[in-house]
């Protein structure tokens, strides 16, 4: 009987004792979970190599409790570490050995089924004498005799991942991250933004900036500075900021209006895409704000910037709402929208200049520049529907294709609310030139263009009156020269 119980040895994983909080209860008793050594199941416990000599009855009665001689040698241990039992099969301890149903990535220990039993008997924890209801269940706990153990598990871990990291990432493998991974981005001390990346973001803006328009805003700034005497350094910043904001706002306008041409060229979003164009415009808004921090009165300048940008977006929002809901505004609503939208950048420029001017207390230029803003936008509405030059630069009656309630359109609709012809043309957002020409002839019959020209004349007279007041307040040669420059800009607008 003793000879028949002689067993070959195998390498079994050491499962360290865990606290009660790490035990999982089952019908067979307490099973210790081997997460610490990153142990994975080796396969079903009902292996075909599982010994059949130790039946449940023998284990229960204790008749097969013979002392087994350990036959482990250094070579056998090395084979076990390589995952090969004495029979030559990987993770197979031979015909008479019991294989623990787990394999470990780290450490192994030597034993056999009978050694397992002997170790348990010596420690006083012989589970052979357990509940008969459990005799058919495999022993789930490993031996606690430290003489049977051989493990390389670290004594202490500084983190719950340290042991497993050493098993997986030990050495200089291709998946091991560099030591200082991400440090330059985390610390923020090493600049990583390049001129090439900046050029990518600025592409749509630079494209439109490369096709300049009339640049009326820069001319207005130069004309008003005869009266305000802003220092050259501050004036350069203000001029740059206003130009940046104007160009960026045109990028957004072209997207929101579904325009095809700007200044006689394809719109930026047709070349760079809508998303990149919008991002470029928004980026420039903040670059402009950053420029203002260099002004001597930066806090006041930032406040002005914020207020006028809010007004600009309010005006644009109402303009889009009327278009998208096919709602015809009143003249007062229209004038408020224009004052916020178009007049916003004119006011922004003059307010920034007055904030930096050493003589700002002698004149307030805001009413004059607001009047010029209204004049400029209503004139633009008229030219969009009637000027051949405008047609070459932006297309025939682009406002009709957009479905926009411009000043002449509002007049024509309100002149005869019962006639839905113009409303229906706006709804179609047509590109048909014959339909557009019919709409223009309809507005001509309704007297809308004539009415618009009269309104422009009234605004021009208001502006000239304010120019004369400014000339008197400033006085002298400076007052006269400034007035002449501003009148020249008004004349240029009239000649468009």
TrEMBL record:
Positions with biased composition (Low complexity):
61-71
What residue intervals traverse the membrane? none
What Pfam families does its record include? Answer: polyprenyl_synt
Comp. bias regions, Polar residues: 1-10, 44-60, 148-159
Q: Which InterPro entries match?
A: Isoprenoid_synthase_dom_sf (IPR008949), Polyprenyl_synt (IPR000092), Polyprenyl_synt_CS (IPR033749)
Give the enzyme's main class according to its UniProt record, as a single word: transferase
Q: Which residue ranges are recorded for the region named Disordered?
A: 1-71, 123-175
- Protein name as catalogued: geranylgeranyl diphosphate synthase
